[in-house]
Here is the input.
Amino acid sequence: MANLKIGKMIMRSLFKKPATLMYPVIPREYKERTRGHIEVDMNACILCGICMKKCPTDAITVNREERTWSIQRMRCIQCSCCEEVCPKKCLVNESSYTTPDIIKIADTYEKPDEPNAAAGETGLKCADTCVFCGICVKKCPSDALTVDRAAKKWEVDNDKCTKCGFCVESCPKKSLSIE
Amino acid sequence: MAERKDLIQDIAAIEASNLLETVSDVKDDGYRLGQICATKTADGIDVLYTFEKDSILKNFRVSVEDREPELHSITAVYWPAFIYENEMRDLFGIAFRNLALDYGGRFFKIAKETPWNPNAVAKRDEDAAKAEDCDAAGDAADADADESAKTRSDEEGKGGEN
Amino acid sequence: MGKRTIIPFGPQHPVLPEPIHLDLVIEDESVLEAIPSIGFIHRGLEKLVEKNEWPEMVYVIERVCGICSFGHGWGYCKSVEGNLGAEIPPRAEYLRTVWHELSRIHSHLLWLGLLADGFGFESLFMHSWRIRETILNIFEETAGGRVIFSVCKVGGVRKDISDEKLKDIVKTLDGIRKETAELTNVFLEDVSVRSRLSGVGALTKQDAEDLCAVGPVARASGILQDVRLDGHGAYPYLDFSPCIETEGDCYARCKVRIRELFQSMDLIEEAVSKIPAGDIEIKLKGNPSGEFVARMEQPRGEAYYYSKGNGSKYLERMRVRTPTNANIPALVKTLQGCDLADVPMLVLTIDPCISCTER
Here is the structure.
């Protein structure tokens, strides 16, 4: 009866429910950790562009002038890299997949205008306790800072600075602040 | 706790002329060929040979120049090396002498020749330009130009076969 | 003496999941010589180190192969961690081991299915993949992806698995253990399967050594070779010895993989019972500036990861040598003298992964 080795298995599956899901009639259940698609909370986003720089597939584009954040859904590989590097944690990998489509979709989100932002009063400030160590320069993801140790000069390029706060965290003297 | 054998890194630089000798010694010691890989450096190409025995790795680095890199094939000692050597020939343009199984640059179907070694590409372009200049300065005979183009392609073919 | 003919085999062929081309020189029905040719899907992933910073490069390396994705990620991390001289917390090493062994189970079940499909036993193929689905679900629950994990990072792992979840995994594995035993019994005992695999494509121990075969192919020929013995991950704390067969034929290769299936289940069970509490990652300082050759035991065999840094955020060179690369010479050798009808079996039993090979 050697040929009936698989017989039992086959008989059992004859009377069992199918192992596959009757998709799409019965929707698939996503697990809690499933990496499906990236969602962005534009109210928290500061358009710093770190996600754009770190994305391995260049799926994300951040436009600071137009105040938009956009993602090309077909390029995204759901690696959650952006979610991890985001300083404001405004990116979340939701568990459901994007729906299939016949064209390559790019989703663009606009950041709502902030009432007080226009004046340009807020910015990065450095207190007198600065020792010009240059750590903030190394940490800055958008190369907005310059430190000259010899001339004891600390400068910020306000156009480039995204106020992400990486320098504030890294400063050993705690002399940096965003006001 | 067992010894972390994977953390032992033994990388020795050897001369290209000693390559076959070293590899034969390693083979006699009972080592197995692990991998061969090329790295483009600022002033040439480093080829790293890795051998393994009882979870201990032995590495040898051979440096060659990058415009017309050439090395002796080790397929006579380790036949399976033909895969790595053909790969390096296609990606870095390293010519291997006495390669047991030579694909003549057609192992990988890639659009550009030697894409990972721009200097070899530059050298080839220069050679081609020089050959063209010679043709123009010569007796302007079309037949000659054809002839030199033919010898050039012959040489290329030969380079692959060697 | 018959007439010699050259038959092209692949890159498109029903038994080939991925493109490899073989020129088979045949006389009557037997193969005299085989010339392999790859390179249809060279993607240049190694070159991407110049565009991706080393912490992000792991996402690219993971995508070298879909089946042994976790192992590739781990191998890359191991190489860069070695470069930085970083010590990984034990819990992270245990978690990596659990994930890696799970992917071994998934890879071997997938391979068993492909093998069954290769010799025309479709229902066996379906059942192998049905069991594999359970493992994929575990992946999705713990890591978030069914195929690509993205949990291994340089310096540790991204996500923790809670102790309850780990116990759940062991319970799930216990659940499929009986089914897997039943399934693999068909491979090992069924008359038709046995006669298809036994004595086909034997590779002697001497040949396997000379041809530098790796992984299950080498172990099926009686070579004791397993990277897990070199003391990385949680393996030194776990009790295991490589599965070794001596016949070297397709049946032996199949048997090695089947034994490894159960061994992996035992390893996971043991790892879960011993896993320590603690951190799952460490903070790394500086950029890699040296070079490091790391090895991993992938489901298909030994893989190499060579990284070379220059002190900047971008590595100078990242090299992955995958197991199939090392097994192709062994394949070419076993093909010499075999029957034309056995060629698909021989190609399948080295478990070829061509996209890996070319990267």
